[in-house]
Structure formats: C-alpha cells, structure tokens
Amino acid sequence: MGRPFRLRDPVHGFIQLHADEVKLIDTPIFQRLRRIRQLAMASLVYPGAVHTRFDHSLGVCHVAGMLAEELGLDSDEVRLVRLAALLHDLGHGPFSHVSEPLLERHADRSRLPAEQKKEKIHELITAHFIRTDPALAMRAGPARGEEIAHLLLAEFGQPALKNIVSGPLDADKQDYLLRDSRFCGVAYGLFDIHQLHRSLVLYGAEDHQQLMIRPDGVHATEQYVLAKYYLTTMVYRHRVRLITDQMIVRALTLGIEVDQIEQLRCLYFFDGSDEFFENYKQWDDERLLLACTSAELAHTACAQLMGRLLDRRLLKRVFLARIGREEDSALREVLGNLPKPEHSARRSEIETEAARLLAKVTRQQVDKRFVIVHVFDIKSVRTTSRNDEAGILVATAPQPRPFEQESTLFASINEEYDDQFVEMYAPVEWETHTARDRLLETLRRPMEELIRAACTGVKGETL
Fold this sequence. Notes:
CATH superfamily of the largest domain: Hypothetical protein af1432
Strand order of the largest sheet: 5-9-6
Structural class: mainly alpha
Largest sheet: 3 strands, antiparallel
Helix content: 40-55%
Number of strands: 9
Distance between the termini: 63 Å
CATH architecture of the largest domain: Orthogonal Bundle
Number of domains: 2
CATH topology of the largest domain: Hypothetical protein af1432
Low-confidence stretches: none
C-alpha cells in the first residue's frame, strides 16, 4: 500500500491518506476540484466561504474511513468506502450544485440506458469518469473503478457500505456541515461527530446490514439533525445566497436559450457522448466566468448578468410572501411547478408583468430578463430529518423504529409545518433602507395580486 501521507485539514486536524488515494488525488480530473467552490458564490455574503470540492472530498474520505472503522468493517471494505467517498464529487460542474438544474433541464435522457434514466446527471458523469478516465483507471485499476461506480450509483449489494457514502447519515453530510460552518464563520452546523459515530450501528442480516442509530444514541443524532436544519435555513437559504444562485442559473439559461452561446450548449447539453465528457472535464468556475464575460460576448444578456455578479451589483429582493399549508393548495402546486421547463411560459408571464410594475413604481428601467421569481419550501425539522432516499432508523427490538418517533424532542414537533415562500429578485436600486422599506410596502399588495392572477386566473386577491 505504501507509506501513509498526512496533511493538515482545518476541520478534522490531520488527515491520513493511503498511497493509492494520493495517486488518485494527483490525477488532473481530481485536481480540477480545486477550482470548483463548494458553495458557489456564497463568499459574496460569507467572505470566508472560498473552500472547494477538493477540500470537501478529502474530508469526506477521512470521515467515511473513521466511520467504517468504528463500525468494524474489514480492511477491504474500509478501503472501498474511502475511495468512493474520495471520488464522489468528480462529476460536479462549475459552481457545484448550481449547475445541476442546467444539466437536468437540457439532458437528452433518451440516449441513456433504462436503468440510468432516473439518476441525477452529475452522478452519471461521476460514475463515467471513475470508469473511463485514463489516469484514474491506470491508478485504481478497472475492477476497483467498477466497484466504486457501482457503490455510488446505488447498484451495490451491501446497503451498509452505500449508507456510509450516500444516505441520511452519510460522510458527505457530516463533512459539509462542519466544513461549511467553519468557512462561513457560523456555528449553526456544528455537532459532535465522534459521539455520533459511537452512536451508529450496523443492523440486520450479515449480507444486508443497514446503518442505524443505537437506542442510546438518539440525543447525539438530534444534535446532528438540528445542525443540518439550522445550516440549511440560516446559510444555504440566506437571502444573498439565494439571489446569487438564481443569478447564475438565469445568466446561464439566457446564455443557452437566448444568446445561443455554443460553449454553454456544449457544456450543459448532456448526451452521454465521449465528446461531451471530454469537454465537460475542462470546465471549472473561473473558466466559466471568463467565458461568460469575455469581450466578444459583452452584448449578451448572459455577460451582463454575470458581470453584475463579478462586481457584486446583485439583484434586489423586492417581494417575499409566505404561503402556509392552510392556503389554496392549487396555488401552492402551480407555484411549486414554476421552475420546471414545461411551466416556463407561466413563469415568464409573471416576471414580465412584475418588470412592468417595478418600472412603473420605481421609475427605473427594469430589464424583464433579469426579474426572477423564486419559490422554495421550508418544512418542519422533523420532516427534514429524513433523507431523499430514506429516514433515519433506530435499532430497537424487535423492529427498528423511525428516529423521529424515538426522539422525544422530534416527536413533539408538529410535522404539519410546511411553508412555501415566493420571492422576486430584480435589477432595481434604492439609496437608503427607508427608501427600500417604503418601496417594498408599496409593491406588496400589487405583487401579490399579480402572482395570484397569473397562477389561478383570479384577479384582485392577495396571497
């Protein structure tokens, strides 16, 4: 295996890497992750948030190894889990998760095998790179690369190993909570990782074990789940973070669909071809910013909006409304569907009418292309304790029970809380907070009426 290599990590202290892991880290495709920030342009509100997918991947490898050893896995299983954790983010595009809607929107899924049609595109890209990248293949070996790809794509037969790299308690979430908290300079995502690991156990038949919580580990898990909830609501959904993410998505969408920028079309029109993959791995945050703001594209909407990001001339939030569960379910459904491509006409209608209203009220020129309506949900912490794939289970006898039922704290929380929020961002300016507050109050009722009318056809009613 060679001599272990140690490096100092600002989150976990010293991280020890094996020689075969160092060889993979030294490949060009892994080094690309140094140039992709973990939180896109969150540094515009949290100046320290300049950490990258590279740092994070090393941290996930370390956490996965610690957890696998704590659970008593054999040496080969530990090594496989560490390698999968190390390579799990290879398929991220520029600005990390912000690229995902573009990939999903423009992917040609008809060219995918049936078993892959429901997989996320960036995860398919990760698996492809692991299987085919020449430098990775030479250093990991074809057999090991296939094992890693199977584990990351939910094709692996041992649930316990899958749970460590992808699940409600996985090493990925554990690292990003601690890492994002550290670099954003907040304490919202902190939890006792060592106590959490001591609280985990493998449960079930030997060939079908799953990662669960010990009955006496509920309190350590409560801290972890609350950390995830608070970091999500306080950092990932910070007003400026949401605005910058939406500005990137809108700039790239305009670049592809309006400006017809060929470089962007090649980057985001996933078709599974060798040409797509070869081009994709050449892109990172800096190259995308430079390409979108080049002199020859200065006339495009994409360049203008990206230029605002570079200069921190951000869009302003001109409207915010909360729509609770007690509100009209039809309205909630329509609003929730607005980001989907098939509802782009309705979304465009809302944004066009909002631009007219803003121009009239502010007496400023308002480019309708840069008016963005954004919809998101905030669910109860009890609901968000569950992962997309499954909830957290406690290894009670005679049958495992859901964590939120075993936790006195979470059992007392109203699961019915599920609010939808509608925000509007626009290229308007104000001189003072007083002027801002006056404008927002002036806009509130007509903007509510505008959105409801566009969504339901009912005029004159507020949200």
